[in-house]
Amino acid sequence: MKFRFPPSPITALPILDSTDAFPVRRVYCVGRNYAEHALEMGHSKREAPFFFSKPADALVINPETINYPAMTSELHHEVELVIAVGQSGFNIQLENAWSHLFGYALGIDLTKRDLQSEFKKKSRPWDLAKGFDQSAPISSIVPFATAGKLEEGDIELSVNGKMRQQGNINQMIWSIPEIMVELSKHIELQAGDLIFTGTPSGVGEIEKGQTVNAKLLGLGLDFKLI
Ligand code: MN
User: Fold this and answer.
1) DSSP string, the chain
2) What is the per-residue pLDDT across 84-93, written as a single tens digit (0 to 9) for each?
3) pLDDT per residue over 159-185, tens digit each?
4) How many structural domains comprise the chain?
5) Which domain range does residue 89 map to?
6) Ligand 1 geometric centre to CA of 78 (Å)
7) Is residue 2 part of a domain?
8) From ligand 1's centre to the CA of 4, what distance in Å?
9) CATH number of the domain that 112 lies in?
10) For residue 173, how far is its CA from the centre of ligand 1 (angstroms)?
């Protein structure tokens, strides 16, 4: 059978110190994984993790600019560690979880907070508040083979040079292995899957013309909203 139009290209992340790329399959995100962020969003700190997803083509790799999206007047930044799955697994066991990991990236879960609040109030799905075009700026991947088990590390985001979010991976309520265990109870994780692991406190609004700068593990993101 012949395609009526060309299939969409595969989103692939550059791998540091390699000429290879990481082909993306699916993008999952963890909600509320840092106690202080859960509190700032009005929730208690002891809650089982929950997940949502973004389309893989919402990723924008090492962008210089991001277009301010339509249908919002309250765009929020959420800086996050992203984990990349390298080996498939259903019902992954805690002691094996690290072996399913390919590496790490730095991502931003851009969120239309006004739309999300409206959807929440009406008990409707949030998809369009989270999974819109260009909603997931992301860096290259640093392989697990280079970075090892990530149990701590500073993660930060500033807007126009002013620090907004400053956290540490060791503040995550659910660790990297625990996230893989929990998500793989629902779906078979596959090589190519990415998981945004939640944001530290300090989320806030960004406006057209502002510059966003984020850092983690020697990875950086630096773009302007236009
Ligand atoms: Mn998030």
Assistant:
1) ---SSPPPPPPEEEBTTSS-EEE---EEEEE--BHHHHHHTT--S----EEEEE-GGGEEES-SEEPPPSS-S-EEE-EEEEEEE-S-BSS--GGGGGGGEEEEEEEE--EEHHHHHHHHHTT---HHHHSSTT-EEE-PBEEHHHH------EEEEEETTEEEEEEEGGGBSS-HHHHHHHHTTTS-B-TT-EEE----S--EE--TT-EEEEEETTEEEEEEE-
2) 999 999 999 9
3) 999 999 999 999 999 999 999 999 999
4) 1
5) 12-225
6) 5
7) no
8) 36
9) 3.90.850.10
10) 14
